[in-house]
Amino acid sequence: MDTGRVRVGDGLLELFGLGPDDFDGRVESLLSLTVPEDLPSLMSVVEADHMTIGDRELEFRVLRPAGPPRWLRLRGRLVPGGEGRPARLVGSVVDASTLRSDITDVARVQRLAAALATAVTVRDVGKAVVAALRRPLRADRIALAELEGERLVVTVLDPPEPEDWPELWRAEWRTEWPDAPVRTMPTLAAALREGRAAIWPAGSPLETALAEVGPGGLAVLPLPAGNRMVGACLIGWDTPHDFGPDERALLTAAAGLAGQALMRARAFDAEHELVGMLQRQLLPRRLPRLPGAIAVARYLPSTAGLELGGDWYDVIPLPDNHVALVIGDVQGHSAGAATLMGQLRTALRAYAVEGHPPDVVVSHANRLLMDMETDLFATCCYVDVDLEQGSAWCVRAGHLPPVLRHPDGSTEIAEAEGGPPLGVVRQSDFPMSPLRLRRGTLVALTTDGLVESPESDIDEGMERFAGQLSAADPTPLGPVADALLGKAPRSDDVALLLMRYDGMASRPLRESWTVWRVPQAVGHARRFTRRTLRSWGVTADMDAALLVVSELVTNALVHTEGQVRLDITLVNDRLRLAVADASPRTPAKPTSIGWGATGGRGILLVEAVSAAWGTLPVSGGKQVWAEFVLRD
Hints:
protein serine/threonine phosphatase activity; 6-stranded mixed sheet; 5-stranded antiparallel sheet; Beta-Lactamase; 24 strands; alpha+beta; phosphoprotein; protein phosphatase
């Protein structure tokens, strides 16, 4: 093996088309006569990087001065030298066409059956059929297609290059067979109806679309499964091919195996698509637009069949230009884990919208999970971002901390103190840790499927993730997310949530007033409103704004108990007046009011003079708001 020299008999030289005087004794001289496509597999026998002690067997083609290439079979054994490494290759090369076809065909069927037993998807089935049949049969083309109603959908074309297929196929190169060629192939349609393998030697009168697939011979194999056809396999030769009885039996047996495998794979693909649809329904369909920030998310499952993952993410817009970034992972891969994930996501969103601080939101979710008495637990990371100030509070429940990429490209894994996973300890503390964001800071939240692998632990994975984030250009956020997932050695589900903080172009003006329950409370609220609006230079719609304040404050004082707060916000030309109280009951707009009624007209007045109004649940009560579009 070290010298590159070889000793061969005259019979082997004859197989290569050489005479004794034409051969110089070098291995390279024989390899130069090999068909280029077969050279890599042949080289693997003699290259040092691939050599191991043991038997070798493979088929390859050699070029001849005239006619098609000749198929040869190499059977040999690598024997060790003094140091135990391969030193010599001893074996024989024979004309593959002289071998007993019954033995080789049985072996091919057995290999195909073994490959199809592990084929999961439709594409896996196609690859197994190509590997088992194309080279052993010396075929030039193989196409595998599914039968869907009256259509054939091609799943595998080998070779995959368009130039290796006839012009008609090249012009319509895509994943599906076009309808026109299918309609012009009655021979193929007849074979599918009859359900028997059809063989056409060279020169057979066939439609152009079929004849050009195998001008030297064509085999069309309907793929049966039970009592129906699930697809077809086309095998074509460019040079005249002799279809012997043993080969016909091989093709028939292969078609039966492929049909059954294709049916199983179609069922798996349908199940997997159903799983994907259910998973997508449990996650946000789209992320909201954020003032002064942009967010993208990705989810990639790695489970099979009907198993569902428990990874999730969410982006929750909150009042006062806050947003909650949430990511989590429910233990296990099952329908129960996915169902629990959907319940937790809904609960966290509800608690957040009610106005609770981050630690209370996560504590409520923990108690909810404990009360459900499930054996599953969940991890979660919740980040409340103030988009006006560029600040955030982070709460971790057994989950990975956020990774921050700063505008200068540096990254840091946030030092956020964490609590236990949700559903483990009923009375748990979930401390809040502050985060500071600069304009251009990227906040990255992910699940352990992205950073943990059999080759590295979570700490190493987090450092690698931070390094990839540092090298990324955060301007186009979507490609960053795709690149991070593309480099991940996934053995688990992966959820990824990215938000780039750009800062708000203009910050709202805000003022608040606590309304005391005194006889002149409404008057005090009106004076505070007038003084605030004048300080902001707002004079338009002053009377309407004061009327709304009077009605909302009066309703809160009359119909609720506890503290009442008036909030005034100005964003560009939009003025928002909001009154919060301690009652969860929302005011209802009356459908009709009698002449003698002494109440119920306040909400109608608010609706009449404002551009919009509504209610929001807040921590410990509700908020009733009205908005004005200020006139110039």
